[in-house]
Design a protein that fits this description.
Length: 363
């Protein structure tokens, strides 16, 4: 039997979203969203609850009416096209499977609606189930499947109709951690092999980082940043993106231009740190992740790094290393270290300047 082939159309842009607005009554929930997606690309829309990511997905699918702007799929304006005529398949968080149907019935549901013969439906479904490692489960009720198997059935139903675009709305959130990792690897592998265009909504940063070619970070109905996982992780464009991508520790710095380069000073430092890098001038807030901070001897010299005086207040052993809570001033920071260090020890908390995300404090 042939493998399901999802055609990658020749247009240079699969999806064009231009100045898209959505209102819920008098409340605007999408504020002029612009986004282009190329054929065969996997996009993750990442954001916290209520940021507008699911509204954006549902508007692309046609389940939510746009209040303004344009949506073009492979060059065709579909903003007024009903969902069933957009060539889109959607996977839902709840799976949305028919409990009274078998695996065969669920995966073949969309094919039957399209008038495909019973024999052709079964042939297509068997091909899809083989791809998803569900062979032999054709006649089993979906209520008798595991969570991971149900998710694969939902994916199979979406892929069986060979859509131009696959939309995924938090598809892995109901799975336990181990199964979630396995299924997301399977989805990404299938997408890479079959070449279809996919957009997935998620609040899980790791899920977005491991599955997507590009990440769209949303905040309050607007796109905050678009880029590759590495770009968004390493070079956040705003305090919100930095914090959302895990750099949620902050310290206040003062940056001035000195004779030999930038002079960077934190509260508690006796002398400024000289730095050859680039940074905004004046009062600056530095955002950083836990894994950036290290512990060193309090009096040790350190180039291109802020060293704050601190005290170890807590020690735990999660396995593989010790985890310390270091107090500096009125702030506490989590630091990992291979060494066993005594509580109450005065230490230096080292923060490499090149690993800090610096933004003007007023931003």
């Amino acid at each position: 039997m042939r493998e399901v082939k999802i055609a990658v159309k020749s247009a240079s842009v699969a999806i064009e979203i231009e100045d898209l607005k959505v209102n819920y009554g008098a409340q605007r929930v999408l504020h002029g969203v612009d986004l282009d997606v190329v054929p065969g690309e996997f996009i993750a829309i990442l954001g916290s609850s209520g940021c507008g990511k699911t509204t954006l997905l549902r508007t692309i699918a046609g389940f939510q009416k746009a209040s303004g702007g344009a949506i073009r799929l492979f060059g065709k304006d579909v903003v007024d096209t009903p969902p069933e005529k957009r060539g889109i398949a959607m996977m839902f968080q709840s799976y949305a499977l028919w409990p009274h149907m078998t695996v065969l019935g669920n995966v073949g549901y969309g094919l039957r609606l399209r008038g495909m013969s019973k024999a052709d439906v079964r042939a297509r479904v068997e091909t899809v189930l083989r791809m998803l490692n569900l062979t032999g489960l054709e006649d089993r009720k979906v209520t008798n499947l595991s969570g991971g198997q149900r998710q694969r059935v939902a994916l199979g139903r979406a892929l069986a109709i060979e859509p131009d675009l696959l939309l995924l709305d938090e598809p892995l959130s109901n799975l336990d951690a181990k199964v979630r990792i396995q299924v997301r690897a399977e989805i990404k592998s299938l997408q890479s092999r079959l070449g279809f265009t996919a957009i997935q909504v998620t609040h899980d940063r790791e899920e977005a980082m491991t599955m997507a070619d590009r990440i769209v970070v949303m905040d309050q109905g607007r796109i905050a940043q678009v880029g590759s996982p590495k770009e968004v992780y390493d070079n956040p464009v705003s305090p919100f993106v930095a914090s959302f991508m895990g750099a949620d520790n902050t310290i206040d710095l003062d940056v001035r231009q000195g004779a030999s380069g930038l002079e960077v000073r934190a509260s508690g430092q006796d002398a400024p740190t000289l730095w050859s890098g680039r940074a905004p001038m004046g009062s600056v807030t530095a955002y950083f992740r836990d894994d950036v901070a290290t512990i060193q001897d309090l009096g040790a010299k350190s180039e291109d790094a802020i060293v704050l005086p601190g005290t170890i207040t807590q020690r735990t052993y999660p396995g593989g290393h010790y985890r310390y809570l270091v107090a500096t001033g009125d702030r506490h920071f989590t630091v990992t270290d291979d060494r066993y260090l005594d509580l109450g020890n005065p230490v230096g908390l080292r923060l490499p300047l090149e690993s800090l995300h610096l933004f003007p404090s007023a931003q």
